[in-house]
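Hi again,

Forgot to attach this to my earlier email, sorry! This is the prediction with zinc ion bound. I've pasted everything inline since the attachment limit keeps bouncing my files.
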Amino acid sequence: MDALAIKNIIIGILIFDFLTERILDYLNIKNLSAALPNNVANVYDVTEYQKSQSYQKEKEKIEQFQSYFQFALYIILLTQGYLGGLYDAVAAAIANSPSLSTYSFYASNLIFFGILFIASDILSTPFAWYNTFVIEEKYGFNKSTIKLFVMDKIKGYLLAIIIGGIVISLLLFLIQSLGTSFWWIFWGIISVLIICLNMFYTSLLLPLFNKLTPLGDGELKNAIHAYCIKENFPVDNIYIMDGSKRSNKANAFFSGFGKKKKIVLFDTLVEQHSIPELIAILAHEAGHFKKKHIIQMMVLSVFQIGVYLFLLSLLVENKNLSIALGAQTNSIALNLIGFGLLFSPVSTVTGILVNLLSRKNEYEADAFAAQTSSAADLSIALKNLSKKSLSNLTPHNAYVFVHYSHPPVTQRLEAMGIK
Ligand SMILES: [Zn+2]
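Structure tokens for the complex follow:
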């Protein structure tokens, strides 16, 4: 396929994608005015329901604005060939630099990615800022401060530079030394990395952003232990995480495998729910383990990455991708971006399939929780979570089908027999 055809296909994909999202957004916003669903009526009153609707509307508005902005930006970059132009300029500057020219392959690709990373971060930060300090603030969720926001940014940058830098350098090295057969070695390394990140997330990454305190003795700890013993569910440690330093929103999760599993409860979750509700939430999470969802999702993503890398190996050296993005020279970095854009419909479709599976898993975990703790407790916990987080009670089915990894709360309640 020649470069012009590739460029036109990419632009076509972007337009199609943009228009589909607008239709989904339109349907979703229209559905917001629906009446309060029956099965949550006992925890919501009219004011709270209206508050959740206006919160959803405001969030949707800023997301829409951001997606208009991004779409316009992509179209300009592509039609004008600015991405390729930028790469050519970086490569030329490096070729002229006596200290960098010996490493020109790595330097030009890495610096180019670095510039894109910083530019896209600068462009998206105002949206993140507005979301945290205007919308979340207005609805009483925000607990973050400017200092914390900036510190999170700096830590995020450092992590991106270290992890991203290593992964991209490795990819470049393998492509340069092995050609198109780079993919299966890189696949192996990435798979190990994903498994390690999963195993050490709570002990290595999370403490960079939050403080974890072992849960102290008391009623909650006894109740959790009793549940874990009853269900033969070995747990290594239970932590309370200071989620309240950023937001009032609550969450809980498990990490690790086998006997080394850790439970992390947000302090906000513990404050906002009764002990039976907390046990029901834990039982839901335990259900994901017992039903092997965690392993299943991990195997699936490793498999997916393998397929992508194989497809990438077919195109990574195709100069026409670089030319389609506006460059004169062949660049691995541009070919990676071109590949990502060209195959975005494939990732949209796999995303939909993964969401479908994930929603099925959520029902299974709910059923497990209902069986091993109590459907009544879980339903109260779900209703309270939904009320406190002002979640969308009436998302449109088409929007759910494409974007939701969890079924809407009313459908989860319905599946538990709560009409
Ligand atoms: Zn779940």
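Residues 284, 288, 362, 365 surround zinc ion (CB under 6 Å). The beta strands are 212-214, 237-241, 252-255, 262-266.

That should be everything now.

G.
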